[in-house]
Hints:
Layout (H helix, E strand, L loop, with lengths): L2 E7 L2 E2 L12 E2 H13 L3 E2 L2 H9 L8 E7 L3 H14 L3 E5 L2 H4 L5 H11 L3 H16 L8 H8 L8 H13 L2 H16 L3 H8 L3 H9 L3 E4 L12 H14 L9 E4 L7 H9 L2 E9 L2 E2 L8 E5 L15
Helix pairs in contact: 5-8, 5-9, 6-8, 8-9, 12-13
The structure holds zinc ion (ZN).
The site of zinc ion has 5 residues, from loops.
Amino acid sequence: MSKVYIIMYHYVRRIRGSRYPGIKGLETEDFVKQLDFLKENDFSFIRAEDLIASYYEGYKLPERAVLLTFDDAYSDHFDTVFPILKERGIQGSFFVPGEILDQRNVLPVNKIHFLLAAEADHHMLKHKLLDILDYFRGQNTDLPADELLLAEFEKPGKYDDKETVFIKKMLQYALPEALRDIILARLFEEFVGVKEEALWDELYLKDYQMRLMKQSGMFIGAHGYHHYHLGEAPVEEMRKDIEKGLNILRDCLDRNSWVMNYPYGSFNEQVEETIRSLGAKLAVTTAVGINDTERNDAFHISRLNTNDFPPKSLRFREYR
Ligand SMILES: [Zn+2]
């Protein structure tokens, strides 16, 4: 067999009744149900090393092969996921953005999640964002008019309504980075209202936890340093970000055979070329689908979302 379902997870935690009930993630009990479902339906859990071997050494994957991948190195992955996987003898692949081990900052991607979770009224939040933009427009005439921004970025997404998509896109990449950071800091302070370092502390995996997971047979993969759109970055900056991320993970990955996970699924030919030259063997994307190691490029590996499997849905059946 050459086909493998690769499932993508982010937050896996107790969400209902927690401090951030609006966070988009998987409840712990649903994670357990999902593993039970996979087991009962004869899926075979594989290791990242098996996937590398299937690409490079002709290793035949088992029927209904499944690989579990966890993005962004949340403390959930150590506290919740790791003990459950360890008990069941399943390997998870954990992709760590270097910066979270190196600095006491909350990554912009997570600030955005917590902002959207803390304030449920995204219509109001959108107007707040536009108001702040207006203020900066007085000082910086480079910003396009609201109408143009809305026309380009306010579109419903697969999981989000159009206003949520607009806020995410504006704060992820549509604004110049320096301005984005200022605006995001302001919104974060007003609506989330916790100290950034306190959230950093509770949100992310720590270095010793990552090492322990690695020693216990889990797989650690690269996810850049600052977690941004590598496919949009100047080449030198992109290369530095990837190298910096690798250096921080050096004790936990094999520099001659490592796996990349493109932040936001963003890459281009130069990103591919760069990671290949740095020893990457595979790269996972956010493209949706089942992966076929005979047909899909090793640097364009597609995945399915945890929501595509029970107990959330049976959408995985649409992919063969
Ligand atoms: Zn990520």
